[in-house]
Write a structure and sequence with these properties.
- The chain is of the alpha+beta class.
- It has 2 domains: 2-173, no CATH class; 192-293.
- It contains 5 helices and 9 strands, in the order βββββββαββαααα.
- Strands 1, 2, 6, 7, 8 and 9 form a 6-stranded antiparallel beta sheet that branches. A 3-stranded antiparallel beta sheet has the order 3-4-5, with no helix packed on it.
- A hairpin with a 5-residue loop joins strand 4 (57-68) and strand 5.
- Helix 3 packs antiparallel against helix 4 and helix 4 (245-271) crosses helix 5 (273-293).
- The longest helix is centred in the last third of the chain and has 27 residues, at 245-271.
């Protein structure tokens, strides 16, 4: 692997353009970008030889340790160490600002060398409910891979092409950034079974009881088809669910339970006049609240 490290070095110096009232040059802080690239570092268990990032700053080094796991993967710990002593004056000149640390493959034939971190948890050491919940979350977010953990800093991963489970570069990020995708409900052109579904609150507030089934039942139909599709994914080896068979089946059972509750609700609207009137009143209240908000 190869390590890249750098920081912003600020020095107190005279400005070339800004002057004081007496026309003398004003003292300002000027930034210099310091960058360094390490030689190739082989994956050998033990401490990494200390690497000095820049010859002008011999006390600023990258140190680390390499360990091999039982499955053959490697864990690498890296630290950017500022060993400079603060002077009595202008202590800022001994500080590292906007520090950067990144690592990538030194072999350009094999770039996607970074794999997800394995975090096995033993069921016997956890409360059964917590263990089941953790495993369910691990299943849901199995494609959201964690490659590294920062110590007081965030880590940005540059993933490989056509996959999110391998990365080609890992970099520290002092100010973490994450783009949250917009969530929007699916439409009938995406899920044909939703055709005819009515979700407009004003229309539902004015719907006769006999028409609720035609306007809302497409939700039941679409959800039934979706559950069937998800159940088929459990046995598909390409879905990465081999280690999550039990929680995947529990998730399908929960979906079936929710489907039964939706069906029971529709039946209640058709058979209980007070429930139907309350449903209309609820939609009217939400419609008016939306109008008020706008």
């Amino acid at each position: 692997m190869q390590i890249n490290a750098g920081w912003g070095q600020y020095k107190r110096t005279k400005s070339e353009t800004i002057t004081k009232k007496d026309d003398t040059l004003k003292m300002v802080w000027k930034r210099q970008q310091i960058l360094g690239n390490s030689p190739p570092i082989p994956l050998i268990e033990g401490e990494i030889p200390k690497w000095t990032v820049h010859s002008e700053y011999p006390q600023v080094q990258v140190q680390g340790k390499i360990r091999q796991q039982s499955n053959g993967d490697w864990i690498v710990s890296l630290f950017l160490i500022n060993g400079q002593k603060e002077p009595a004056k202008l202590r800022d000149e001994a500080w590292l600002f906007q520090p950067e640390l990144s690592v990538q493959s030194a072999d350009f034939q094999h770039l996607d060398i970074f794999l997800k971190r394995h975090k096995p948890r033993q069921a016997g050491k956890l409360d059964p409910v917590i263990y089941a919940e953790e495993k369910a979350m691990a299943m849901l977010y199995r494609k959201q891979v964690e490659f590294a953990i920062g110590h007081g800093v965030s880590v940005h991963a540059e993933t490989a092409q056509n996959t999110t489970e391998c990365a080609v570069k890992l970099s520290t990020n002092v100010v973490p950034v994450y783009e949250v995708p917009k969530t929007s409900p699916p439409q009938a052109d995406e899920i044909p079974e939703l055709a005819g579904l009515v979700l407009d609150m004003k229309e539902l507030a004015e719907t006769p009881t006999a028409d609720f089934i035609s306007k809302l039942n497409p939700l039941v139909t679409a959800y039934t088809v979706w559950i069937q599709q998800q159940a088929q994914r459990i046995s598909n080896p390409n879905e990465g669910l081999t280690d999550y068979q039990d929680v995947a089946e529990d998730a399908i059972k929960n979906c079936d339970r929710t489907l039964q509750r939706i069906q029971s609700g529709l039946t209640l609207l058709q058979t209980n006049p007070e429930a139907a009137e309350a449903f209309r009143f609820m939609n009217q209240a939400m419609h008016l609240q939306r109008l008020h908000s706008r």
